[in-house]
Write a structure and sequence with these properties.
The structure is a single chain. This protein is α+β, with helices and mostly antiparallel strands. It folds into 2 domains: about 1-160, no CATH class; about 170-355, no CATH class. The protein has helices at about 1-10, 60-75, 170-185, 190-200, 205-230, 235-255, 265-285, 295-325, 330-355; strands spanning about 15-20, 25-30, 75-80, 85, 90, 105-115, 120-125, 130-140, 145-150, 160. The longest helix is centred in the last third of the chain and has 31 residues, at about 295-325. It is elongated and about 95 Å long. The relative contact order is 0.12.
């Protein structure tokens, strides 16, 4: 019994694990130098290359505590579903301190990284440190933590990750954000639907319609990406009324101009820049997965494009194809339809300005 009690005290490293809702994990290994066995950290061990460079380990600290850090982390292993992860490693500056004290009784080593998409379990092992690892594991938002004693070279029991903590797999990201982009147009994006219908009404031929839609797509792709990445920023109180005005302008041009003008594509491109900022506002509210940021961004945009093409296809099949060659097409369809679109756009403009 006495030997067992000593084993739990001598050579213990406290390990705190946190899984965060942004899809990342943090593992803090606290090395209590007063309870390490003789010789630990004095063998001249070097940090293995898979952990280099260790953040905050200055040349001076390397001389003083480099072997201690090496002995503490060289045998460590973080695994998700049995597959080893490759964390970043850093020494933690104690709260309230200006720097790391090499003579401090405790040294905290932090492992951090991204949780693999779709991961179900987590395990910890440290084959290099003697004695025990006292493991405390917590999901962000949980009041209670799970605790384990990991003896010697043993691997911890699998800890089941909560689904809301685990990032989506790439396949899940593609499916989810394609759907989000599509549904932002159909059925939720009434203003974007009216803009696309305004583009559709002025021409009876599919090629110039697709040229305008392509220009619109290229434009909103540019500003969507730039806004999400924080390169450009414009208040929604400006963007939303301007989007409504773009709908009014396209509809009014349909009424006063019987033919497609050469500058129409350039104008639609400019309006697309505005609409891209509107898309970015929606996407910012939905959030983007940290580990698949670019994939989600591209898939959302692709979903938006599919939604627009669906609107054009439905309009062409129901209106354009059967009626575009009728002598009354412009008088009975284009002008009345454009008046309705302009009226709705003007109402939205006033509503968005005064709210």
């Amino acid at each position: 019994m006495a030997a067992g009690a000593v084993a739990h005290e001598l050579g213990t490293i406290r390990v705190s694990v946190r899984f965060q809702k942004d899809g990342t994990y943090v593992v803090d290994a606290i090395v209590d130098r007063q309870h390490l066995p003789p010789g630990f950290g004095s063998s001249g061990s070097r940090i293995q290359k898979r952990f280099e460079p260790v953040e905050n380990l200055t040349p001076e600290l390397e001389k003083r505590i480099g072997p201690l850090v090496a002995d503490a982390i060289n045998g460590s292993s973080i695994a998700f579903d049995g597959k080893p992860a490759s964390p970043h490693v850093a020494l933690v500056v104690p709260e309230g301190a200006a720097a790391i004290d090499p003579d401090a009784p405790e040294i905290t080593i932090r492992f951090r990284g991204e949780i693999p998409g779709g991961a179900k379990t987590f395990q910890w092992q440290n084959t290099g440190a003697p004695g025990s690892n006292m493991l405390t594991i917590r999901n962000e938002g949980d009041e209670a933590a799970s605790r384990q004693w990991v003896e010697g070279n043993a691997t911890s029991e699998p800890f089941v990750l909560k689904s809301e903590i685990v990032p989506m797999t790439r396949r899940q990201v593609v499916a989810t954000y394609l759907k989000l982009g599509f549904t932002h147009i159909l059925p939720k994006g009434t203003d974007h639907i009216l803009f696309v219908l305004g583009i559709f009404l002025l021409s009876i031929h599919l090629k110039p319609i697709l040229a305008q839609v392509t220009a619109f797509t290229v434009a909103h792709t540019i500003t969507l990406a730039l806004t999400i990445y924080g390169v450009v920023s414009l208040s929604p109180r400006i963007v939303e009324p301007m989007i409504a005005l773009s709908i009014v302008y396209v509809a009014v041009e349909n009424i006063v101009t019987p033919k497609l003008s050469p500058w129409r594509v350039a104008l639609v491109f400019c309006f697309g820049l505005l609409h891209g900022m509107g898309f970015a506002g929606v996407l910012s509210q939905l959030g983007l997965p940290h580990s698949e940021f670019l994939t989600a961004l591209l898939c959302f945009n692709a979903g938006v494009e599919l939604g627009q093409l669906t609107v054009i296809s439905i309009a062409f099949l129901l209106i354009g194809l059967p009626f575009r060659n009728k002598p009354w097409y412009r008088r009975r369809i284009v002008i009345p339809g454009s008046i309705v679109i302009a009226a709705i756009g003007l109402f939205w403009f006033v509503q968005r300005v005064i709210r």
